[in-house]
Amino acid sequence: MTARLRMRSLQKSFGATRALRGVDLEVGPGEVxxxxxxxxxxxxxxxxxxxxxxxxxxxxxELDGNPFRPANPMHARHSGVSMIYQELNLAPHLSVEExxxxxxxxxxxxxxxxxxxxxxxxxxxAELRHEGIPLDAPVSSRPVAEQQIVEIARALITQPKLLIxxxxxxxxxxxxxxxxxxxxxxxxxxxxxxIYISHFLEECQEVCDRLTVLxxxxxxxxxxxxxxxVPQIIRMMVxxxxxxxxxxxxxxMGEPLLEFRNLAGLAKPKSATLSLRKGEILGIAGLIGxxxxxxxxxxxxxxxxxxxxxxxxxxxxxxxxxSQRLSDGIGLLSENRKEExxxxxxxxxxxxxxxxxxPVSRFGIVQSRAQREASQQLMESLEVRAExxxxxxxxxxxxxxxxxxxxxxxxxxxxxxLLDEPTRGIDVGSKVQIYxxxxxxxxxxxxxxxxxxYLPELLGVCDTIGVMCRGTLSExxxxxxxxxxxxxxxxxxxxx
Length: 496
Prior knowledge:
- The chain is of the alpha/beta class.
- The chain is built from 17 helices and 25 strands.
- The protein has three domains: 5-238, Rossmann fold; 246-329 and 414-496, P-loop containing nucleotide triphosphate hydrolases (Rossmann fold), CATH 3.40.50; 346-408, no CATH class.
- Helices cover 33% and strands 25% of the residues.
């Protein structure tokens, strides 16, 4: 049987950076193939070549036995190759319907066929079991999870024969993820091939047939998913053993740092009460839309507070701007790093130091050398893969961008870190590094308020956990009092 896709000896460099050093990849018809690797391993670059966004420096690609070298993404789509990017690639000012059909608008006698466009968009959402997303709403007004569904729907309307999914579940609920897996299985039955990129290895095990692992721009292993144990996959990914997925060092908790007393926003949260102590990692679980992100935003001064109080180090400070919060020693890591967390066209150094210029300036003028040196130290401590502190942050992989966003909080010397999905889109090795860093920060007397949709990491790294349900935060309890089952029950409003 002719392979659906065959890539041989693909190489690609960006200046002095060799992103791909000779990658081989083969995918059969109707096969779901996992592409696995650390951030910066070359996965996204390889798929951007396949989808027409980049041209390879050397190597060959065959699609259904024929040479394939797409000139651009539209050429690739019309050839049967569609890609769902990790970073949302939507037109924010257009409606949901317009985004789904962008570039594929049906016409009749030279005029836009609006009724057919609407019917096609609605059918695509129905296949994903999201008929409730309003077609006329600006896509920017919808939650990140719904925007991800729109991205997936747009890829499906072209009836691809090869679909590339780059971290498609990073913003989805468990229910949405299960629905997506059902869609993938239906695609497999129709003979559609899927390349599935994910850092959630349990997802790969559930839905993928085979796997290929990349490391440092090279393919280092391939095989049947069911026959390859997770420890072996991790060894291939990182080139080393990871003994403890959730490292937990010794630390003592002290006096309260940050307190919410019946905190309520204009819409969400409806009520949130907690006390974050020095040396504590406090996790907030809940379904998407429950109010977790809104709670952090209200605390940081980005969203208005309707009632309740915020206290910092025994001082009431409910009404405050983000600038004042930074002065108080509170730092926020947004879940949306592309839109809210980073200046993608500015350098790593600028992004790392922008909230605290004092240590790298003299007489009010930023000293380039001091800025580079401070940035280089942070990059080394976080193991950021980049050419130099002067490189634009938008050129980095998603995981390395996240490290830069965290690094800015470290440079700012925040006492309280509000972390909203800090490991989203980060590989296994980097996740362990982030968990270890969180533990070190807590051990040094800082407080970490940690929002995550991934229950194993909440149970693995947190000291205490509270669950949000429909805008209300449950009683915060020690982690030993929680299980995945009890967290999910609390998240849907069921009591045990």
